[in-house]
Design brief:
Structural class of chain B: alpha/beta
Radius of gyration of chain B: 21 Å
Order of helices and strands of chain B: EEEHEHEHEHEEEEEEEHEHEHEEH
Order of helices and strands of chain A: EEEHEHEHEHEEEEHEEEH
Number of strands of chain B: 17
Bound molecules: flavin-adenine dinucleotide
Largest interface: A-B, 80 and 103 residues
Distance between the termini of chain A: 53 Å
Structural class of chain A: alpha/beta
Helix content of chain B: 25-40%
Number of domains of chain A: 1
Radius of gyration of chain A: 21 Å
CATH topology of the largest domain in chain B: Rossmann fold
Largest sheet of chain A: 9 strands, mixed
CATH class of the largest domain in chain B: Alpha Beta
Strand content of chain A: 25-35%
Number of strands of chain A: 13
Shape of chain B: elongated
Helix content of chain A: 25-40%
Oligomer: heterodimer
């Protein structure tokens, strides 16, 4: 089985987020970048699915600065990697680049994380599937494959559903699909020599542009309620905040 | 020209988030001087559909058919795109629910439209069309311009209030064309817990962490939630350990929520946890450690042992509810 995993390079989950004084750009100096946590689940699943045979290719849309993250993916167990040499402008741009690659390099299964932790968008998997004319299951918590059929468990409003889909298919990985894998020494060593191909992006019209950023207003300091007065909480929530 | 809103139903009924999204779309339509058309897919009674009229919809399109009985992303996205073309819709609005998140990107591709997902406030429409959305996992907001002629927007539940406006809606059948290639995915089974409030839509959430020591102690958490009519949530280690289902896990790698009230019990307030809950309107933290980082992100704090405080809160919540009803 041939699997493609789409990976994003995102600020570390504990990173402080800062913008330029005009609020137009994210300041990345001093920020550690990591493999998007959901994408790491997707990759771990792909590695599990190919233990008995098959390949896992990772694809990233990014400039040269994302290569440490790509090498990490190779260390976790990907077979080879492709980098489309451009900053990821928006979800549509990313989906078009991946679709372009897949049209000439078909896969049985494409796995993505269900969301990226920087743009908090979840548009890439479904856009990609639409461009390729194949199904997408975005909130997949479980995935098993038998022959050319995938069975998935997906989160829905107030519950879950079990779906059956033919391959090829795009699936968005959620918590629970696989255990996070930690690269071992052999993985790290071999990652250095695994193939990483760099290709140039195709032209894509731009429909959306980030104009500026802003930070939430910090909460005013906490109001402490003594343990013995805990019962007064609900009256306070009604009178002071009107939330109940 | 029009604004089209997709009105999602769960088992034939509209949820509060559907009326939020209609109110949100109505505000956009009014600002753009366009009529608001709603599209419903699947089996919904005319009585239920008529409710859309109370929030500013003038026309409801009803798409029904054997292949549309169960929510299924591909045929639903096709029907929405067909309706958008038929109504010459300039803005298409959906809820950023689980199904909406799967459908909206497909609709955007079909219509060659720009997509803004997870929008949290009314767009600015004087001049460029600019939407506000969350970014960097709750640590920032991004203002995004959509410059395409047709625009698709998905709105986060609980981020816009339900606004009634006088009027009524005419209901008409919308004829659809479903192609076989859209029907390759089959739903084999659906499991819904009807007795519980669904977490992404919940206005009130009671959440607990590793401080609860073990799954056997969740009885009081559930009792508090049930008394308040709240949904239950948990931190990541709790669902990792199998104390609670993964569907309750909130945070950066779980569900992001923005309820009116979030009560966190025995949760330390790690940055990855805060990422999913910091847009809650009011946060209450119960923790025995006065140095717990969560207190810095809270509106109300109670320092104390959960095993003493929670039973007290349950009693108080019961008294509060009965005084409200009485
Ligand atoms: C990439 C990544 C992604 C992550 N994503 C998430 C995520 O989405 N969601 C998430 O929640 N975490 C996430 N985490 C984990 C996160 O960093 C924390 O480890 C986790 O949130 C801690 O859970 P907790 O607060 O329940 O447990 P702990 O940190 O162990 O805290 C327990 C708290 O309970 C208090 N306590 C103990 N006993 C009592 C008592 N009797 N009464 C009252 N209080 C008591 C303690 O003082 C303590 O503050 C992620 C981590 C990483 C690295």
């Amino acid at each position: 089985m041939k699997i493609l995993v789409c990976i994003a390079n995102v600020p570390d989950t504990t990173a402080k987020i800062n913008f330029t004084p005009d609020n137009k750009e994210f300041v990345s100096t001093g920020v550690t970048f990591i493999l998007n946590p959901y994408d790491e689940i997707a990759l771990s699943k792909a590695v599990d699915l190919t233990t008995g045979g098959g390949t896992v290719t990772v694809i990233n849309i990014g400039d040269a600065s994302t290569e440490p993250t790509i090498r990490k993916a190779l260390a976790i167990g990907a077979t080879d990697a492709v980098r489309v040499n451009s900053k990821p402008r928006d979800g549509y741009f990313v989906a078009r680049q991946i679709a372009e690659y897949v049209k000439t390099n078909p896969f049985d299964l494409i796995l993505c994380g269900r969301e990226s932790s920087d743009s908090n968008g979840s548009s890439v998997p479904a856009m990609l599937a639409e461009l390729l004319g194949i199904p997408c299951v975005l909130f997949a918590k479980r995935l098993t494959i038998e022959g050319t059929t995938a069975t998935l468990e997906q989160e829905i409003e107030g519950g879950k559903e079990i779906l059956s889909s033919p391959l090829p298919l795009v699936a968005g990985a959620s918590e629970g699909m696989a255990e996070w894998k930690i690269p071992n020494m052999r993985g790290i060593m071999s990652a250095r020599t695994k193939p990483l191909v760099v290709i140039e992006p195709i032209e894509v019209p731009q429909h959306t542009t980030v104009k500026s950023y802003d930070k939430p207003i910090p909460r005013s300091s906490v109001k402490l309620i003594a343990a013995e007065d805990a019962g007064k909480l609900f009256d306070m929530l009604r009178d002071e905040k009107k939330v109940i | 020209m029009s604004v089209l809103v997709y009105i999602e139903n769960v088992q034939g009924k509209f949820k509060k988030s559907t009326f939020e999204v209609i109110s949100f779309a109505a505000a956009i339509a009014q600002k753009q001087n366009l009529p608001l058309v709603a599209l419903s897919i699947g089996d919904v009674s005319d009585e239920e559909l008529g409710k859309a009229g109370k929030y500013g919809v003038t026309k409801v399109l009803k798409a029904v058919g054997d292949s549309l009985k169960e929510m299924n992303v591909q045929p639903y996205a096709s029907v929405i795109a067909q309706a958008a073309k038929a109504e010459n819709a300039k803005v298409i609005v959906l809820s950023a629910s689980f199904s909406g998140k799967g459908i909206a990107p497909r609709v955007a591709i079909k219509l060659d439209a720009g997509l803004a997902d997870n929008v949290i406030d009314l767009p600015v429409m004087d001049g460029p069309f600019i939407v506000k959305k969350g970014a960097f996992s709750g640590k920032a907001f991004a203002f995004v311009e959509i410059s395409s002629d047709v625009k698709v927007i998905s709105m986060i539940p609980n981020s816009y209030k339900v606004v009634e406006s006088p009027g009524s809606a005419a209901i008409t059948i919308f004829e659809t064309q479903i192609e076989a290639k859209d029907l390759t995915v089959t739903v084999k089974e659906t499991k819904r817990s009807t007795d519980k409030v669904s977490l992404p839509d919940a206005e009130l959430v009671v959440s607990a962490g590793r401080g609860m020591k073990g799954p056997e102690n969740w009885g009081m958490i559930e009792e508090l939630a049930n008394t308040l009519g709240a949904a239950t949530a948990c931190s990541k280690p709790v669902s990792d350990a199998g104390w609670r289902p993964h569907s309750e896990h909130v945070g950066q790698t779980g569900i992001a929520i923005s309820p009116n009230l979030y009560i966190a019990i025995g949760i330390s307030g790690a940055i990855q946890h805060l990422a999913g809950v910091s847009s809650s309107k009011v946060i209450v933290v119960v923790n025995k450690d006065p140095e717990a980082p969560f207190f810095k992100a809270a509106d109300y704090g109670i320092v104390g042992d959960a095993f003493e405080i929670v039973p007290r809160l349950v009693e108080a919540a019961k008294a509060f509810k009965s005084s409200q009803n009485g």
